Amino acid sequence: MPLFSIVIPTKNRPELITQTVLQILGLKFQxxxxxxxxxxxxxxxxxxxxxxxxxxxxxxxxxxxSMPDNWEAGYCxxxxxxxxxxxxxxxxxxxxLPRLRRRVEQYSPEVLAVNWYPCAKVKGVKYxxxxxxxxxxxxxIEKIRNLDFIGFCSLAPIGYKTILSRDFVRRIQARFxxxxxPLSPDYTACYMTLFNSREVHYYTGLTNRLHPGAPSNxxxxxxxxxxxxxxLADMNLSFEDTVKFAPLPIVTVSNSIVSDFxxxxxxxGQPYRHxxxxxxxxxxxxxxxxxxxxxxxxxxxxxxxxxxxxxMEQNNLFAEKTIIAVxxxxxxxxxxxxxxxxxxxxxxxxxxxxxxxxRLKMIWLKFVNKFFMDLQK
Length: 377
Known about the structure:
This protein is of the alpha/beta class. The protein has helices at about 15-25, 45-50, 65-75, 95-105, 135-145, 150-155, 165-175, 185-195, 215-220, 225-235, 255-265, 280-295, 300-315, 320-325, 335-350, 355-375, and strands at about 5-10, 30-40, 55-60, 80-85, 90, 110-115, 130-135, 160-165, 200-205, 210.
């Protein structure tokens, strides 16, 4: 039995998955298996991987599964003591597996999480000199419940950066029938993990990276692109279903993550209901998300903004109502748009923790100047 199962679900991306597999096998770490869960429509992926001669590689052919079902097949196929499920666009840095092995040998944790994007250390969390932190699961749950997405995403065992004990996964599967659920398997598995564990062993070093240009189901769903439509169609879901369990059904990726939280809380028998949400904070969260969506993708958000405005009226959120009434008109007024551009840019920097030290000038030219040019059209 290998120590690690590196499980990689994939679909219709033979060149990408081949690059990823070769990169992982090139790490020269022996105590592992690489399990590709091939959900492709044709045989091109399996044929490409058949050219790789390495006893650590195993290909499981599925096909015609939804993304959550394909992830579930991956968890079921793993034979290692620990399951490290990653995407076919993930690059694992060379030092990761040896450091994970040392942590496992020392503490035998059920849940570990690593980093695949630069982020600051979270306030209130104690970090050891070697970059590890042991964080109670309930602390991470509070982050999402309080809509602290930066703190939550920095610590949570979200898909692609999570290593789970196989025994832990099997207990969850035995109790709830499966590990992943619609909509987003990376977040539903994360919530299921948090609701059934005491702590997460989190490593702060930048351990994983993404292949540049690899498309995202989440982003495509947000602007209702073809890839997002196919992603939802595989689960017999509509765009409205992505936020079915959210307090307010406004379609954004972030709100779908909130929706998944309440969905899994219900399945896991957790006492979290919409009453736990601070309505003012939730309104502000949705407003910032809609502004970001419009700013990044230039989509018409007027209907969604109207739904948010009605929600605020119904809940007497008058302090925020004025902000909605004024800033909501920014796309209709060049003067207000110019005045708000800098503030929106700052919000994006704060929200996504963009490494501004060396990219600030480039980002400013790319986004803000384009925004101003669009206003003149």
